[in-house]
Structures are given as C-alpha cells and as structure tokens.
C-alpha cells in the first residue's frame, strides 16, 4: 500500500511540535497543513483544533509530530512520540530531521485491533540541492523504492511512501478546473480535488501568525505575518455604504423604467430596437449583480462579479479617456464641420452612380422608361436626405457634444449611441436596399416561373438581365452593416470578455489551475520518492470559454446560410431581430 503525504514547503524548517492536517478518506493520503510549536498544552490544542474544525468545516486532526533538532532538546523526539496516547489516531506520523543533514526520518505508528502501537520506520532523506529527472505531468502517482519495515510486529511486510511537497499559498488561492457549480466533482477518482479543497477550506487556520497572543504558535504560509493591504481594507469598509447607495439608486431607476408610460407599445418597441436602451438595461443588470448585498459563495459567482466589475471599470475608464480626448483642441467642432461635407460627398457619389445606371451601364441596353422612374425615385430620396442633413447642421455640434459627454457612462454606451445615430443617418440607404431587394425578389420569382415555362416551350432572356441593378445597393448596405457590426462587436467584447479572469491567467496563473505536474526532487536507492507538485495553469481558450459573460442584443443573429439565402433570393434583412429569423 502506498502512503502519500502532502507536505507544505513552508514547514520544512519549522520548530518541533505537532502536525495538524487531515486524512483523506479512502485514499490512504494525509495533507499536512501546519505545525503547532512546542511548548503547548494538549488540552488547549484539542480545543483550538475543535474550534478550527467548526469554522472551516474540515475534519482537522493531529496527524503526528515534527521534530527539529536543537541544542537542549535531545529528548524531544521521544516526548512527542508519547503524545500519540493523548491524541489517539489510527496512524501516527513521526517526522524528524537529523543534525547536520538536509533529509529527515519518518516513523509510522499504527494501531492493531487491540489498540497496541506498531512502529514502521522509513528513513526519508531529501536532497534539497537541485532537481533530478524530467517533468511528470498529470495527476498520476509516482512510486518510490520499497522500504523494509522494521517493526515490533509484522517485520516481513513492505510498504511504500511518497512525499509530495507543495506551495501552500498557491494551492490555497487556486481553483482546480473543471468545476461544477463552483464545487469540484466529488465523484472523481483522483484525490487532487480533495487536497485542493482541504487547503482552501482551511483558511481560518492560517489567520494565526507569530504576532498573535494565542495559546498556540504555528507555522504555515502566513505565520510570518498575514497578507493584507491598507488600501484593500479601506475599500472593503467603504464598499458597503457605496453598494447600498447604488442599490437604492438602481431601484429608483428600474421603478421609473417599469412605469406604465414607458411600457406602452410604441415606447417598448423603440426601446427594444435601440442599442443605447439595450446597453443601458444591460449595464443596470450588471450593477445590480455587482452591488448585490449577497456574498458570493461559489467560485463561478465570485468570478462573474469580479469580471463584471473589472469590465465596468475598464469601460468607464475608456469612456473618460474618450471624453478627455474629444474636448481638447476643439475636436468636436472640427468633427461637426467635416460631417456635412462628407454627407455631400456621399450624396454626390450616389447621384453619379444613379445617373450611370439610368443611362447605358457597361454598354448594356436597359429599359429606359423603367430606369428613369427608378432613378428619379432614388434621386428624390437622396435630395430629401441631404435636405435633412443641412437642416440639422446647426445642431450637429451640440448633438456631438452631448454624445461625447455620454461617454462618461462608459465607452460601450457611447458606441451604442453612435450605432443608433449611424442607423438613423443611413436610413435612406436602407430604404434603397428595401426597394432594390423587393424588385430583385420579384425578378427572381419571375425568372423561376419563366424557367418552368422554358422547360416546356421557350426561354425569355429579357427578364433574366434585370438583376444587375440591386448589386450596388447591396454593396452599399453591406458597408453600413459591417460598420454597425464593428460597433456591436466592440460593445459585446467589452461586455462579455472576462477581463478579471484573463488578468489572473496572465499575472497569477496558479489561481486558475487545470491540473498539476510533478517534478522529482530526490530519487535515491533505499529512500522514498520525493516529488514537487506544481500547478498547471488553465488554457487561455478555456478561460474565455468558462468565464465569458453571456450577452444579448437587439441586432439580428442570422445564420450564415440564412443570410446568404436572403441575399440570393432578395429577401429583406431586417436591422433588428425578426420573428422569422433563424438563429444558430
């Protein structure tokens, strides 16, 4: 049978005392969490462990003793061995270092059915000067050399021991993946999730450091002083009133939005189609999640809150940078002055295109009466659009000023507002597309009927050539759709991309663990195997897939097949989600 002992590196040079940890049930493995220093009172130790067991929910116990040789403590090892009668366990681990050596010895005391202790001795010498062997990946077990058991009874039995050293801080702060509702799968055969869970849930045990005047002194990863920051603590104290104030303001806002006037059919329809209203409701939901007084207990809930908070912070920061850039050197005035000439240029190009189509494009003979009717119809729309732009030109700078000021609510809000303004300014192009698509659709259906007629009697070539008029309108509409698509993708990227999780992956990769790998520390004949457990970070693609925030939007999400079919048949592509739209 293999006995696996997970030993923290921070306890390698701890003073003599008791090993505190947990036996993993059904795995023949022990996780050492801390060392309680001598001197101590056994009754106080039992009371402290019972208290920590209630706070952490982990079945903490005294695993054995740890002896560090010092002058004047020659009989410490035998004294600590006798403590096994005060802390009765099925197995008692007795680890001790030797004078002048890096390695340490281990005695395993087991109890027979009569309650008598049986000693099994295994000398474990650790080489701390460098690493040997290659890297062993995965959660597999590395068996060491067999040790002869020198016991009072059962001396012919052989046993194997593996010491697995781990960095306690990294294991406690990491989350092993994959996870199910924030909790590792309990049905897994590997003991790694149980080891990670034991160290993580034992956080109250690590609050005691050398500066506390408690009944016991311990060695663990925070024994030299608890990690902390004055800024973080002040932010924690200030977060409660800020969250309460924000929650109250959000309650007023949601009650205002749910009023009967704003829920009337025209208002509800318009608000559901405008990207600005959708983004505003989306950010309201985000703020309600972040400012919720409910504490995040599950890992997924915590990561969702953290990703939303970081996303909102980055969004507002980028918006403030945009505001500071726009309001310097009169950039808004320059932008307003270039808007009307740009609109005139587009109108001029469209008029030249229509004049070319109304003549003989590429030398083709067209139906002149139909060309003149359609051309003048589109030219009239362009004239109306240009008149509308020139009518609004005195107010363009003021509109841009307020649009830039809206970036204080976030860059995504300004982009959503820009998308809505672009949709309104290019509404005439969508009208051209609708007219052209309808004519093209009628032509396609006419051609299909003529094809059925041709199979029996004749082929009418004159009807087949009319489809050339709608391609330029489709290309123009495609440019507008692509520009609006870039805006929507930018908004969705900021809203859904897990910035907090990606920051953890880049700067503290051990926080998101996909597995572990073992490095051989010492493998000598006649000694057990010593391994170093390192954490394998989660892949970047898995981070994005696992912690990506789901989004929704008002713009259509057609499948590529449905989109190509609509373009080919001349069916309308709506700028919002339609009832008959096919979703991937």
Automatic annotation (TrEMBL):
The chain crosses the membrane at residues 308-327, 373-393, 399-418, 430-454, 486-507. Keywords: Membrane, Transmembrane, Transmembrane helix. InterPro entries: PigQ/GPI1. The keyword Transmembrane helix applies. It comes from the Eukaryota. One of its GO terms (cellular component) is endoplasmic reticulum. Residues 117-154 are annotated as: Disordered. The keyword Transmembrane helix applies. GO terms for biological process: GPI anchor biosynthetic process. This is Phosphatidylinositol glycan anchor biosynthesis, class Q.
């Amino acid at each position: 049978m293999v006995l696996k002992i997970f030993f923290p590196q921070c306890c390698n040079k701890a003073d003599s005392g008791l090993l505190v940890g947990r036996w993993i049930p059904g795995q023949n493995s022990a996780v050492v969490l801390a060392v309680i220093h001598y001197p101590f009172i056994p009754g106080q130790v039992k009371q402290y462990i019972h208290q920590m067991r209630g706070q952490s929910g982990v079945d903490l116990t005294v695993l054995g003793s740890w002896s560090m040789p010092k002058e004047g403590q020659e009989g410490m090892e035998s004294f600590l061995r006798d403590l096994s009668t005060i802390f009765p366990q099925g197995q008692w681990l007795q680890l001790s270092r030797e004078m002048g050596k890096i390695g340490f010895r281990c005695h395993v005391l087991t109890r027979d059915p009569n309650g008598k202790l049986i000693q099994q001795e295994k000398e474990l010498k650790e080489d701390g000067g460098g690493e040997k062997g290659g890297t062993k990946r995965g959660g597999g077990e590395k068996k060491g050399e067999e040790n002869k058991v020198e016991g009072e009874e059962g001396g012919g039995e052989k046993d194997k021991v593996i010491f697995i050293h781990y960095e306690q801080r990294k294991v406690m702060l990491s989350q092993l993946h994959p996870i199910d509702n924030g909790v590792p799968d309990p049905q897994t055969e590997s003991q790694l999730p149980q080891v990670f869970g034991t160290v993580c849930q034992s956080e109250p045990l690590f609050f005691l450091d050398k500066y506390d005047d408690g009944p016991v002194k311990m060695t663990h990863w925070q024994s030299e002083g608890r990690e902390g920051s004055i800024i973080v603590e002040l932010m924690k104290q200030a977060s409660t009133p800020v969250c309460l104030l924000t929650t109250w303001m959000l309650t007023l806002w949601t009650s205002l939005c749910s009023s009967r006037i704003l829920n009337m059919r025209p208002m509800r329809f318009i608000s559901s189609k405008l990207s600005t209203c959708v983004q505003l409701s989306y950010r309201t939901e985000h703020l309600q999640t972040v400012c919720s007084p409910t504490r995040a207990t599950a890992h997924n809930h915590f990561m969702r809150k953290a990703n939303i908070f970081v996303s909102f912070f980055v969004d507002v920061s980028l918006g403030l940078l945009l505001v500071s850039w726009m309001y310097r050197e009169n950039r808004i005035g320059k932008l307003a002055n270039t808007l009307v000439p740009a609109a005139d240029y587009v109108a001029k190009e469209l008029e030249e295109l229509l004049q070319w189509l109304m003549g003989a494009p590429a030398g083709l003979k067209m139906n002149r009466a139909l060309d003149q009717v359609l051309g003048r119809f589109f030219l009239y729309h362009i004239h109306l659009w240009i008149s509308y732009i020139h009518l609004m030109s005195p107010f363009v700078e003021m509109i841009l000023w307020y649009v830039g000021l809206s970036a204080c609510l976030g860059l995504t809000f300004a982009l959503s507002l820009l998308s809505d303004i672009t949709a309104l300014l290019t509404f005439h192009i969508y009208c051209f597309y609708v007219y052209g698509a309808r004519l093209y659709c009628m032509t396609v259906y006419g051609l299909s009927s003529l094809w059925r007629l041709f199979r029996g009697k004749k082929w009418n070539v004159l009807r087949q050539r009319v489809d050339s008029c709608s391609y330029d309108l489709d290309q123009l509409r495609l440019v507008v759709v692509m520009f609006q698509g870039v805006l929507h993708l930018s908004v969705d990227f900021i809203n859904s991309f897990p910035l907090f999780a990606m920051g953890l992956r880049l700067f503290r990769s051990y926080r998101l663990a996909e597995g572990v790998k073992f490095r051989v520390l010492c493998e000598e004949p006649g000694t057990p195997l010593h391994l170093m457990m390192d954490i394998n970070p989660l892949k970047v693609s898995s981070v994005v897939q696992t912690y990506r925030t789901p989004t929704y939007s008002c713009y259509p999400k057609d499948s590529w097949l449905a989109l190509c079919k609509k373009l080919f048949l001349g069916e309308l592509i709506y700028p919002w989600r339609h009832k008959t739209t096919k979703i991937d």
